[in-house]
Task: structure prediction
Amino acid sequence: MAELKPLLLPRVRLERGTAVRAGTTLSIEDPGQWDRFTDLLKGCDGSRTISELATAAREPLHSVQETLESLRTNGFLWLQSDYKTIPTEVFREEFKRWVPIWVDFMYSQPWWSRLYDGTAPASVLVGLSIEQMHYTRSVSAHMPVAVSYAGGVADELTQFKHLSEEWDHYYLFVDACVAAGIPAEFLENSRPLASTKVVTAFMRRVARQGTLVYNACEAILEATTQNDPPVTEFYRVATERLGLPEEFSRQHISHVSADADFEHIDIFDQLLEGRATLPSATVATIFSYCRQLAETFALWHVDIYEFYSGLTRYGPIRIVDVPLASPRTELPLESTTC
Amino acid sequence: MLTTPVSVPVLLRSDPGAGEQPLEILSAESIDDVLRPAVESTLAWFDSEALVGRYELESHRRALCVEMCHVMRSLGKTVALCAAYCGAKPVQELLIKCAFHFHRVSSSWDKIATAISGRQVDELDPLTSTLLLNLSLEELAREDPLAFSYAVDLFAPPGSQASADAVMRFFTSSLKPQDPANTYLQEWHGCTLGNFVSFASVPTTQRYGFPHTGRYGEACARQMGPMLRRDVDRSLQQLTLISDQLHLFYRGAQLFYVEKESEFPNLRENWLEV
Result:
């Protein structure tokens, strides 16, 4: 172990005797040891062995080893002999540490709970469906790119299978929007918000990074099915409380069920199973793009809420206000243009 | 409390019942009449003095300047990308010369970003919202050289006085007069308006004369010639998306710097920087 080279992972916050990372907090009991602790962390740049760090710090080797092992166990650093490749299990542990944090970030806006409570405008939930419809329709603009950038036969098969299962899912969102009262021809003539369009552009860029990076990002998107409250309950309750037709939630729940039935959440894990190690450049790219994905979706959600709640009207855009259906009425007979 | 569902705003691709003729052929002048106003109105997004209040960015003005540096310094690559995907040879050459210019002045943006942030530019990362603006420009560069050429006119291409002044005001309204970054800004402004290699050496644009006060959008429209209204309308839609993306540039700065309290400067993060 003495010849391993500790690497401090990013996003460690040091303050007032504590080190915080990814929701884990470590406290230093003896304040007099704080400077020693931070000096040790600064040395963990992946190029020096534990022995060298102990010598430089004039500390007993076993004491430094103990401290570093504790930091490793708690997800603050890695202990490898080199970092040209990363054992897949080490990567997987770190990835799983961050997935819930990224998902939380994507859905951190307070209005999600207001939709669930029925206190946000119904137009936001319907607007969300419209934009999800546009985004899922654009699967055919980024998933085929992932197919073309697949690294080998097995990856190509995986991407083609996923594409065959996903390319037509947008019809479920179309049906949900129609159930909410938006005529199909309006949807056909509608265009996405700029934020929706750029989510597609982002996924295209991700697709060009190769199968692993693309499916890591897809895994985060699929992980929302594990949200609390569960997505299906969210749609059922929000639809009811916002006075939208039951068919609206049924279509959304069908989409969630379809993804679950296809076991899309497992694709990334399956891809990792055949790989003992991962190139460090791939690992770095995965974490970078996953963080950007979470931030992209957070901005997307902000934009959707602000546009569909009527807070923002920017740019020279053409808008038609379409009346929503209520639980007791079917599709509107006519729409209002303004 | 039950919120009564009333209506939902739907963005449309075209005005319903506007009676447009999609197969009508528009001349270069008419194309310019359709696209130029979108550029002129979008230039308002560079009025940071007005927009920092709206987006609560008063105490993040310097961060906003660094974000704009990230946009400006990446333009050379994006313009070169458009040239690569653009089929029309004269437009390709027009864009390549423009890319040379943006590449040449990118060092000014590096110096400005460093002067404001106190960090070397390779230590910095754009906010994801800024990255998305760059990504939108890249997508446009691949898909629509006409719309992209008009979009270029927003970001102070060589010889565009109005655009150069708008970008200049974006920075000077946020920087103190004695700020070292001002020196580099003046240097960049002079280079933008005094450059005679990038723009005027393409024959079609030589008529603008020195100092080269032309618009890339118009030059591109002239090179590409008459087009169907349907295609021009599509380009207008694409151009409008860039305007919307500038809104998200500010809204993103608000999200990350104000609401999420991200630290400034936004440092580059690498999971495996060994």
